[in-house]
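ugh ok fine here u go
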Amino acid sequence: MTRRGWLLFTALGLIWGVPYLLIRVAVREMPPVAVVFGRTAIGASLLLPFVLRRGHLPRLLARWRALLAFTLAEVALPWFFLSDAERRISSSAAGLLVACVPLAGALISRFSGRAEGRLGWTRLAGLGVGLAGVAALVGLDLSVQDGWALAEMLLVVVGYAVGPIIVSRALADLPSLEVVAVSLAATALAYAPLAAVQLPSRWPAAGALAAVGTLGVLCTAAAFLIFFELIAEVGPIRATVVTYLNPAVAVAVGVGLGGERFTRGTALAFVLILAGSYLATRAAVPDREPAPAPAAEE
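structure:
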């Protein structure tokens, strides 16, 4: 990898490891719908000018069904469920659970008829190891009271895994940045009335507002621009390896800046989930396959 590639890779890994703590800070003062609206509205306002300047909007709107499905799977629903779940679980736990997306993707791709190779012993072992990591996190760190949050995180993982499949099947010939920008705009429009109804009675603290602003500018708009630059520099397959760095950053930020505990469950889950994700996807697809849309993974 080139020096520029390493810089882009490191920057993106750091940026996409931060949203979990920022979301947790924001939802202490604001309802999840307001957090999602703020993040997507800011991101869309920064990215949409690229779409309008390039004149690809008519092509995008012609695929509105596939675009709507992608928006629901990758942005609108996961970002709400993630924000709501983080009112009850730590940002570290959320980051580790999102690291299961490659595991879910391997299963969904296989059983949805997508040509992705056999689920051989290595991949099956990876799925088992990853699930053991989730079990370790749930058994050692999370209580029964977190059941709904865990269900929401499961929906987040499934959504993040389904989104790239929709792109590869129905949107692969469209510019990825434009797809993301329109998805952000559609989500912001959908959440606007909900956010207006659920506005807090008092003005949120400066920290919460700063968290939402950082989510929109840095972790959404800037991150997607960096991601597509990374794809152009190192290729789609190498670019997706950044998903293995995000959980480490999420845990480090949550413990170091958020005051969260680093427990036995966190340590064990971290090793098992990342090892399982690697094994389950190591023989995934050839470099010529179109790049999957990023999981928002945040």
